[in-house]
Design goal:
Oligomer: single chain
CATH topology of the largest domain: Rossmann fold
Order of helices and strands: EEHEEEEHEEHEEEHEHEEEHE
Radius of gyration: 18 Å
Number of domains: 3
Number of helices: 6
Bound molecules: flavin-adenine dinucleotide, FE2/S2 (inorganic) cluster
Strand content: 25-35%
CATH superfamily of the largest domain: Nucleotide-binding domain of ferredoxin-NADP reductase (FNR) module
Shape: globular
Distance between the termini: 28 Å
Strand order of the largest sheet: 4-3-7-1-2-6-5
């Protein structure tokens, strides 16, 4: 884990209230693994005081790490107004990321909204041979143009309102892929809103296929010091509680007590 002032290289709006930011920090970029995150201080002032967590969505060889974020409140609104040449205090990489699938294994990546961010990094790393990337949004205006964030084409889209791709939740696309053709058991990797993750966990439990989920709870410290990110472990699991910031944010779906989330 490193703490440094990372220089903003770019910060551009890529979809409705959604920004793609590149920050220069060779140490954070060099150590980052898919599913890990950074805590960013969005201002030198005291409001907001706490750092904000963001998944690392891409790294580049020249010491750049990128994040993809949606404006939801004060901190992200301030970030959207920053630009090239400014610096943000960054702490990272933090947490435990995705366990990578075996070479040649079948992977199903399932994203809901801005939850696509850590999966973009995962898609960069894993074998693309047998990977399906499924991405759900509320509406077409929110779709992240993945060619601008380095993933290219081949992502299946679902929208709640039917303005692009399949009309309906992304879990309907998942059902088609998991039950459809293809050799070998897939591994599902998911990140998105809690109701979506609950559905993905229930489906993969029913199908008896492995699933890793990335959780986005509120976080105050990001390093295990405040207890603010605790979630209950599943009954019978060795850990009654997990700290999302240290034990996660990526968990095996069967390690969590979904009813309490
Ligand atoms: C490990 C991790 C990775 C994350 N990765 C990303 C990412 O890649 N891109 C991205 O856009 N966001 C990501 N988030 C969520 C992001 O941290 C919050 O959106 C951000 O902190 C909001 O800050 P704010 O000051 O703008 O909003 P605030 O003023 O703090 O909050 C505004 C509203 O958003 C809600 N909110 C805040 N944080 C969260 C959260 N974690 N989950 C659900 N609702 C929340 C608040 O309850 C409130 O209603 C991640 C969170 C975690 C824990
Ligand atoms: S955010 Fe403080 S312990 Fe996890």
């Amino acid at each position: 884990m490193f703490e440094e002032k990372a220089g903003i290289v770019f910060n551009k709006e890529v979809a409705h209230r959604t920004y793609y930011m590149g920050l220069r920090s060779p140490r954070i970029a060099g150590a980052a693994r898919p599913g890990q995150f950074v805590m960013l201080r969005v201002t030198d002032g005291i409001d907001p005081l706490l750092r904000r967590p963001f998944s690392i969505c891409r790294v580049e060889g020249d010491g750049l790490f990128c994040i993809l974020y949606r404006i939801v409140g004060k901190g992200t609104a301030i970030m959207s107004k920053t630009g090239e040449g400014e610096r943000l205090s960054a702490l990272g990489p933090l947490g435990r990321g995705f366990k990578l699938p075996p070479a040649g294994g079948r992977s199903l990546l399932v994203a809901g909204g801005i939850g696509i961010a850590p999966l973009i990094f995962l898609a960069q790393i894993i074998d693309k041979g047998d990977m399906a990337f499924l991405s759900g949004y509320r509406s077409a205006g929110e779709i992240v143009p993945t060619d601008q964030v380095g993933v290219g084409s081949g992502i299946s889209i679902a929208t709640d309102d039917g303005t692009a791709g399949h009309r309906g939740p992304v879990t309907e696309l998942l059902k088609g892929h998991a039950e459809g053709a293809g050799e070998g058991r897939p591994i599902v990797f998911a990140c998105g809103p809690l109701p979506m993750l609950k559905e993905v966990a229930a489906l993969t439990t029913h199908w008896r296929i492995p699933c890793q989920v990335s959780l986005e709870t509120s976080m105050a410290c990001g390093v295990g010091a405040c207890q603010g990110c605790s979630v209950r472990g599943s009954s019978g699991h060795e850990m009654p509680y997990h700290h999302v910031c240290q034990d996660g944010p990526v968990f095996d779906a069967n390690a969590l007590d979904w009813k309490s989330l």
